Amino acid sequence: MTVVPPAAGEPRRPEGPRDPGDAWVVADTGERYWGRFGAAGLLAYDAARGILLQHRVSWSHFGGTWGLPGGALHEDESAIGGAIREAQEEAGVPDGAVRPLFTSVLDLGIWSYTTVVADVVDPFDPVISDPESVALEWVPLDAVDGRPLHPGFAAAWPALRQQLAERPVLVVDAANVVGSVPDGWWKDRAGAASRLRSRLEGLVVPADALELGGDLWFPAVSLVVEGQARGIEAGSGGVSVVEAEGAGDDAIIAEVERRIADGRTVVAVTSDRELQERVARAGAARVRSAGWLRDLLENRG
Questions:
Q1: Which site among 41, 97, 158, 193 is 20 to 30 Å from 113 CA-CA?
Q2: Beta strands per DSSP E along 108-237
C-alpha cells in the first residue's frame, strides 16, 4: 500500500492547516481509504429519535450517501477521541452529550475504521459546522435502510443495529470480590469497597469476555454493598452503588431482577456457588467469578 496526500485544491477540510493523518491509504489493488492512521466515526443513538446520520457532500468520498460523522484519526489519537472530535467538527456534538456503549472495528491490515457507538445522555440538535455535510438528521432505526447509505456503513449496519439492543450491566457482589484477596480488607470494609468502586469507573470489557459482538464494551455497573461497606460515596463513570438493607444476596437478586426488567443484559459477578445458582435462576444472562473481574481490572492497569 501507499500513502497519498490530498490533491492540490481538493476541497476536503479546505480551511486551516491539514493534519498529517489527512491522507489517502491506497491498497495495491487500487482501493483508497481516508486516514493515514485509520479513521473513526460516531454512531450517536438517541432512544427517542434514532441515530444521527450525515448526508455527505457530493465532493467527498462516496458523496451523496448517508453515513456517520467521522474522519481521519490524528497520529496517536484514540478511536473514541477521534470519533468524538470529528463529530464535534462536523455535527456540533456538544461536550459530554454522549456516553460510549461499544466499539466495532473494521481492520483491513493496511487501514482500519472504528465505529464508536454511544448513547445520547444529553439530547442535542446537530449543527452543520463544516463543509462536509449537506444535512444532518436523527433517523429512526427502522428508516435507516431506506436511505442511500455509504457502502461501508451499509455493510456494518445490520450487526450494529443488533448490538444496539444489547445493554450489558455488571451486577457485582462487592463483599465477594473484595474478600477474594487477603489484602487486609477486613480492617476497613468501607475503604475496600470504595477502592473497588473507583477501579470500576469507566470499565472497558473485551466483547468476547461478555460473549457479545463488537470489540470493546463500556458496561454499566451496579455495585451491591452490605454491612460495614454501606454509606460509601455514590459512584460515577457508569457505576451505581446499591446498598443492601438486609442480606446482601437478596439485594443482589433484587438488582438482577430490576435490571432485567429494564431490558438490560445482566452479567452477575460473584464466586459464591449458591448465589451463582440463584442469579442464574433469576435470569442473569451470564455469571462470572470474582477472579474474572479482578483479571479485567489488573489488565486495565
A1: 97
A2: 112-120, 133-139, 168-173, 205-206, 216-217, 220-225
Query: What phi-psi label fits residue 50: left (phi over 0), alpha (psi between -120 and 50 degrees) or beta?
Result: left
Distance between CA atoms of residues 223 and 74, nearest Å? 37
Contact criterion met (CB below 8 Å) for 74 and 37: yes
If DSSP codes are grouped into helix, strand and coil, which group holds residue 41? strand
Residue 225: pLDDT over 70: yes
The arrangement of strands across the sheet holding 168-173 comes to 239-243, 220-225, 168-173, 265-269, 286-288
Query: Could you read off the pLDDT of 12-32 as tens digits, one per residue?
Result: 554 555 788 988 899 999 998
- From the number of C-beta atoms within 10 Å of its C-beta (0-12, 13-18, 19+), residue 203 rates as buried
Q: 209, 199, 191: which is closest to 289 by C-alpha?
A: 209
The letter for the amino acid at 142 is: D
Q: Are 99 and 119 in contact (CB under 8 A)?
A: yes
